[in-house]
Amino acid sequence: MDIPTFNSRDCGTCPIRHRAVCARCEPDELLELDKIKYYRNYEAGQPVVWSGDQLDFVASVVTGIAALTQTMEDGRTQMVGLLLPSDFLGRPGREITPFDVTAVSDLTLCCFRRRPFEKLLSLTPNVSQRLLEMTLDELDAAREWMLVLGRKTAREKIASLIAIIARRESKLQSSQAENAARFELPLTREAMADYLGLTLETVSRQISALKRDGVIELMGNRQVHIPDFRVLLSETGDDADGGMPA
Amino acid sequence: MDIPTFNSRDCGTCPIRHRAVCARCEPDELLELDKIKYYRNYEAGQPVVWSGDQLDFVASVVTGIAALTQTMEDGRTQMVGLLLPSDFLGRPGREITPFDVTAVSDLTLCCFRRRPFEKLLSLTPNVSQRLLEMTLDELDAAREWMLVLGRKTAREKIASLIAIIARRESKLQSSQAENAARFELPLTREAMADYLGLTLETVSRQISALKRDGVIELMGNRQVHIPDFRVLLSETGDDADGGMPA
DNA sequence: CGATTACTTTGATCCAGATCAATAAGGGAC
DNA sequence: GTCCCTTATTGATCTGGATCAAAGTAATCG
User: Fold this and answer.
1) Rounded to the nearest 10 degrees, what angle do helices A200-212 and A189-196 cross at?
2) What is the CATH number of the domain that holds B179?
3) B25 and B58: one domain?
4) Which of A140, A158, A221, B53 meets the CB 3.0–4.6 Å disulfide criterion with A206?
5) pLDDT tens profile B98-132
6) Which chain A positions have a beta carbon within 8 Å of B91's beta carbon?
């Protein structure tokens, strides 16, 4: 993950300008992007949009975490996506969001008004290629997650979720000296349950079990320490090699 | 879903040229696409690629059905995607497939060698926009499916699967005069189980139950008749309005 | 045509995770 | 500090779907 520093300040804040785009865009493409860009902030728990509502912008996550959830007629809910920094939200060519979007932690979005963004897309192959890449990544992650939902046991689900978060978090601080890691769990037990297709009681029980078995250590409810990452991975049920991008 | 007939024969066979692309492409972009295009055929059951293998082409489905599946260390498998005609397979910018691709029925793919296709992508905004659209559709479908896997009961899962297939099939023949439909189930019980995160016994039991309750009628094992589509939908657990694209 | 093989249905039992219910532990605000 | 409220843990019981086991039904092939 090399971040070319065409313009270091902006590259750090707007994922659509990150990497690929920055490296290859013409300066005036970037100017165009900047002209229609603005930031929005949400507090933890606050809704971004409801399913069925108009979403008049597309955005990418700068900091914080957003959840995509779907709700059934009788109120059962399933989280169908977890947007971490640099993930993309919304889609060009569609006005309506098919799921609820909620800020799970304090959240900053880098937004682009839809119309100008779409226009820009049709003119600049690099921007749309970058967007395609991001979308394909999210699709891979979604499919990875289907395996988790469809076939894993409760214990494996918890281990998988912790592994994914650990990987994303420690990628940011990239301080994973060896096989240990330490980070903050950004989700409540309920949110985890919602993501994993479990109940919050089961989540709690399995976390306790992993703690008891020495796979993870908890300081308070959120601060996690993983003494040996390989042990955690062996609990996910995944293939030793290929497992888990996201 | 209007299919503009820029060139009716080709539009019917190559989904990447369908719709959006056909309507907006310059003739020479289409020529470029045609130059690097070729067809491949697979028999039902035959593998297209294995997880981890090189995939030196990208493709879209012309006829038949392909399944994307992932396998866990201990052999548990989960289908993570079902590619129906016009769906896209493979991704520009990545050589390796992260899941097994198998022909579920006899299958024809419209293939493009990777390199020339990527080059074309970077030059023609319309083609990459079209591809982006298709990818976003698949992403939506994947997320829809996460709800099915995470929160639905076995009966609801079966009803959802039948509803999705019915919608895709009858879209093709668009002969759904009123609320009835009749079509071929293209999957074995085992493949359904694999997609739904169930066992084949449970699939069989639930299909029998839906038959007993008059929601569906079977002639042989594969031919399905749905007397009233709305009854089937009420069994999916989805919201009356917003439910199930894909 | 019967034989072999693959697919499907149905039955009996078991167990992982849901559900119901209570208690404990943080974490602000005052 | 105490009170209130949200989040988390733990226990007891129940149940939907898995698992194990056995027929039943098509399809394919010599």
Assistant:
1) 100
2) 1.10.10.10
3) yes
4) A158
5) 899 999 888 999 999 988 888 888 877 778 888 88
6) 136
